[in-house]
Design goal:
alpha+beta, 5-stranded antiparallel sheet, 9 helices, Aminoglycoside 3'-phosphotransferase, Chain: A, domain 2, Phosphorylase Kinase, domain 1, 2 domains, about 15% strand
């Protein structure tokens, strides 16, 4: 895939905001991971602009993500990014230029707040984050998908199969036979847990899919969630796994898990009997992270370090297979 410079992305952003009628806005570079994000400032308002290489094979995924966000914004009390329509009434802007590959752009309303740090997050914030997830799951549309609504599956096949958004593709070559055996043993355990949970409306529906602290904002005690790009159909309890996976590096992990769980079951007490499923689902997230790294070996965050990160995480999976508890020691993405 062609790599674009920050200056080139800025030129694309200038074209994108014109599609939204913002002709004199200020652009500030915010971040770049699998997409590129700018802050957009006008005299009246602030926005976030998300840019990504167009994937025409998944255009309905994008439309459905934006539909889901509008429903959550309009029909619930949840604080989520609101995607604006273009001047022509389109749900996103497509930027075509002879100088760049086609780009999809979405302009979201700005949300106030700061992302909490795992080392300093307070119990009440965690309870509110757990309650936010509970309310999100209570608002899930019915599964199977409503007509015309397409989002990725984050079940066993969706996480570990060949059609998964985490499929390493040629990155499979990074894995030794021993690594593959360990991954397979872990995913077999995950499959048994998911089969036990079942895809009933109580256990399965639309989830955020990537709720790490960087995708959470806390403002005056209120919680917002960002970056629904990976939202999809999955097991509700898996939605707690990314955050708990991130907290595994903290000495106070047990207390952090308790607070998050307490907030969640206050909203969804019917899930209280399934807490034992959390640890295998956190291991599932660990496998997904390994597959992501293998797929994105040239990403600036992992370039030159992919093999060492994967080796470390495979060793942690070996411990999980022995103890049933995932312990993390690394601090890489």
């Amino acid at each position: 895939m062609r790599t674009l410079t920050e200056a080139q992305w800025t030129q694309i952003a200038e074209l994108a905001i014109q599609a939204y009628g913002l002709l004199t806005a200020q652009l500030n570079w915010l971040s770049q991971t699998h997409n590129t994000v700018f802050e957009v400032i006008t005299d009246e308002k602030r926005y976030s602009l998300r840019l990504q290489i167009a994937d025409d094979g998944r255009i309905e995924w994008l439309r459905s993500e934006l539909t889901f966000l509008r429903i959550l914004h309009d029909m619930t009390k949840l604080s989520v990014p609101y995607p604006n329509f273009t001047r022509l009434g389109e749900s996103y802007a497509r930027i075509n230029s002879a100088d760049y590959p086609p780009i999809q752009a979405v302009l979201f309303n700005h949300l106030e707040g700061e992302s909490p740090m795992p080392t300093s997050i307070i119990p009440e914030e965690l309870r509110k984050i757990g309650a936010f997830l509970g309310q999100l799951h209570q608002s899930s549309p019915p599964f199977p998908s409503p007509k015309g609504f397409q989002r990725p599956m984050l079940d066993w096949q969706g996480l570990f199969g060949t059609e998964s958004i985490y499929d390493p593709e040629e990155g499979h070559a990074l894995f030794t036979d021993e690594m593959k055996r360990i991954i397979n043993r872990v995913t077999e355990q995950v499959q048994r847990v998911m089969d036990k949970l079942s895809q009933s409306k109580v256990q399965f529906g639309m989830i955020h899919g990537d709720l790490l602290t960087k995708n959470i904002l806390v403002h005056e005690g209120d919680v917002s969630a960002l970056d629904f790009e990976y939202c999809g159909w999955g097991y509700f309890l898996y939605d707690l796994a990314p955050l708990l996976w991130q907290f595994k590096l903290e000495e106070t992990y047990a207390e952090l898990e308790d607070m998050l769980w307490e907030g969640y079951i206050q909203v969804r007490p019917q899930m209280a009997l399934h807490r034992e499923a959390l640890e295998p689902l956190i291991a599932a997230r660990h496998v997904a992270s390994i597959r992501w790294i293998a797929k994105n070996q040239h990403h600036p965050y992992v370039k030159g370090k992919a093999l060492s990160i994967v080796e470390q995480r495979i060793n942690e999976l070996k411990q999980f297979l022995t103890t049933g508890f995932l312990r993390r020691n690394d601090t890489q993405p």
